[in-house]
C-alpha cells in the first residue's frame, strides 16, 4: 500500500551473552511507534512490512531475533551456542531495544511464531503496549507443537512418513522436534545437512498445503534452511521455553489493550481454534476470520489486505 522506504536509522544493540541484535527504524522519527516481531523462529525480519505502514505517520521498528537475520552470532553457524536463545531472552531483548530507542509505548505486530512472542511480551510488559495486530495466531502450547510435528500427518501422510523416517527409529514415537534438533547439532556436517533438508521439506509442505518444492522459496538457500530448522526445532523441541498454557492463562493482563486477530480458516499448521480461544479470553481483541486464507501472507491476498486494514484502524 505504501512505498518501501529505506531505514532512517539502524544498528546493532548488545543485549548480553555475547549477542547483538540488529534493528532498523523507518518512516517518521516523530511518528506513532510500531514494532514487528518476526516469525520463524529464526527467519529474520522482512522489509516487506514497511509497505503496510504509512511512512509519514508511523515510526516503524524491525528487528532480528537472536541468531537470525543480521543479528550475531548467527544460528546458521553450528558453533553458535543456542543456550542463551529462549523466549525470555527475546522478550528481554525487545524491551532493551524499546529503551534504547526511547519509545514509551508501541504497537506490536507479528504472526505465527511472532504471535507467541508478541503475546508473551505484552503479558510481561502491558504498560508498554498501545495496540496489537496478529495475523496467524499461535500460543506455542505443547499441543500446538505436537499437532504441527505429528498430528498433521493425517492430512499429509506421504510427507509425514518421510519426515518421521528422517530421525533414528528409536526416536520416531517421541518428540520429533527434539530428535531433529539433536541431528541438527551433530558434529557431522552431512547429518546436519540431511536433517535440515528433511525438516524443511515437512515445514514447507505444512505451510503451503502440500507443496514442498524449494524452488523460489527461502528453503532453496542451504544456509537459511539450516538456520530455520535449527532454530525452530530448538524452540518447538523445548515447548518454546514456556509453561504449558502460559499465554492463554495470562491474557487477562491485556485488559484494556485493543487488538485485532487475523486468521485463515484453511491454516493447516495453526488451526483456527487457537485464535478462537485467544479471542474468547481477550475481550478487547477483535477476531477476523478469513475463509479463503491459510498460513501464508502473500502480496494482495486476503491476509495481506486484512493486515493493511488493521494498521489503518490503529492510526
Automatic annotation (TrEMBL):
<dbReference type="InterPro" id="IPR000073">
    <property type="entry name" value="AB_hydrolase_1"/>
</dbReference>
<feature type="region of interest" description="Disordered">
    <location>
        <begin position="64"/>
        <end position="83"/>
    </location>
</feature>
<dbReference type="InterPro" id="IPR005944">
    <property type="entry name" value="Pro_iminopeptidase"/>
</dbReference>
<dbReference type="GO" id="GO:0005737">
    <property type="term" value="C:cytoplasm"/>
</dbReference>
<feature type="active site" description="Nucleophile">
    <location>
        <position position="112"/>
    </location>
</feature>
<dbReference type="GO" id="GO:0004177">
    <property type="term" value="F:aminopeptidase activity"/>
</dbReference>
<dbReference type="GO" id="GO:0006508">
    <property type="term" value="P:proteolysis"/>
</dbReference>
<keyword id="KW-0031">Aminopeptidase</keyword>
<comment type="similarity">
    <text>Belongs to the peptidase S33 family.</text>
</comment>
<keyword id="KW-0378">Hydrolase</keyword>
<feature type="active site">
    <location>
        <position position="267"/>
    </location>
</feature>
<feature type="active site" description="Proton donor">
    <location>
        <position position="295"/>
    </location>
</feature>
<protein>
    <recommendedName>
        <fullName>Proline iminopeptidase</fullName>
        <ecNumber>3.4.11.5</ecNumber>
    </recommendedName>
</protein>
<keyword id="KW-0963">Cytoplasm</keyword>
<feature type="domain" description="AB hydrolase-1">
    <location>
        <begin position="35"/>
        <end position="299"/>
    </location>
</feature>
<dbReference type="InterPro" id="IPR029058">
    <property type="entry name" value="AB_hydrolase_fold"/>
</dbReference>
<dbReference type="Pfam" id="PF00561">
    <property type="entry name" value="Abhydrolase_1"/>
</dbReference>
<dbReference type="InterPro" id="IPR002410">
    <property type="entry name" value="Peptidase_S33"/>
</dbReference>
<keyword id="KW-0645">Protease</keyword>
Amino acid at each position: 500500500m505504501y512505498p518501501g522506504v529505506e531505514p532512517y536509522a539502524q544498528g546493532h544493540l548488545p543485549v548480553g551473552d555475547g549477542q547483538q541484535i540488529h534493528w532498523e527504524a523507518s518512516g517518521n522519527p516523530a511518528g506513532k511507534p510500531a514494532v514487528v516481531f518476526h516469525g520463524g523462529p529464526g527467519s529474520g525480519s522482512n522489509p516487506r512490512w514497511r509497505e503496510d505502514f504509512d511512512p509519514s505517520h508511523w515510526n516503524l521498528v524491525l528487528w532480528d531475533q537472536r541468531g537470525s537475520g543480521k543479528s550475531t552470532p548467527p544460528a546458521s553457524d553450528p558453533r553458535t551456542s543456542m543456550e542463551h536463545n529462549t523466549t525470555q531472552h527475546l522478550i528481554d531483548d525487545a524491551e532493551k531495544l524499546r529503551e534504547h530507542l526511547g519509545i514509551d509505548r508501541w504497537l506490536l505486530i507479528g504472526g505465527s511464531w511472532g504471535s507467541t512472542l508478541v503475546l508473551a511480551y505484552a503479558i510481561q510488559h502491558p504498560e508498554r503496549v498501545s495496540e496489537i495486530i496478529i495475523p496467524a495466531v499461535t500460543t506455542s502450547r505443547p499441543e500446538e507443537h505436537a499437532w504441527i510435528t505429528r498430528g498433521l500427518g493425517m492430512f499429509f501422510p506421504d510427507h509425514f512418513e518421510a519426515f518421521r523416517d528422517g530421525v533414528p527409529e528409536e526416536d520416531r514415537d517421541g518428540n520429533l522436534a527434539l530428535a531433529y534438533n539433536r541431528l541438527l547439532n551433530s558434529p557431522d556436517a552431512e547429518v546436519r545437512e540431511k536433517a535440515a533438508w528433511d525438516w524443511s521439506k515437512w515445514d514447507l509442505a505444512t505451510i503451503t498445503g502440500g507443496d514442498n518444492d524449494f524452488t523460489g522459496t527461502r528453503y532453496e538457500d542451504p544456509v537459511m534452511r539450516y538456520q530455520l530448522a535449527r532454530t525452530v526445532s530448538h524452540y518447538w523441541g523445548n515447548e518454546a521455553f514456556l509453561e504449558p498454557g502460559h499465554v492463554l492463562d495470562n491474557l487477562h493482563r491485556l485488559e484494556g489493550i485493543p487488538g485485532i486477530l487475523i486468521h485463515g480458516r484453511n491454516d493447516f499448521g495453526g488451526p483456527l481454534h487457537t485464535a478462537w480461544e485467544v479471542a474468547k479470553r481477550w475481550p478487547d481483541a477483535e477476531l477476523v476470520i478469513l475463509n479463503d486464507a491459510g498460513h501464508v501472507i502473500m502480496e494482495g491476498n486476503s491476509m495481506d489486505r486484512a493486515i493493511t486494514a488493521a494498521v489503518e484502524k490503529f492510526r
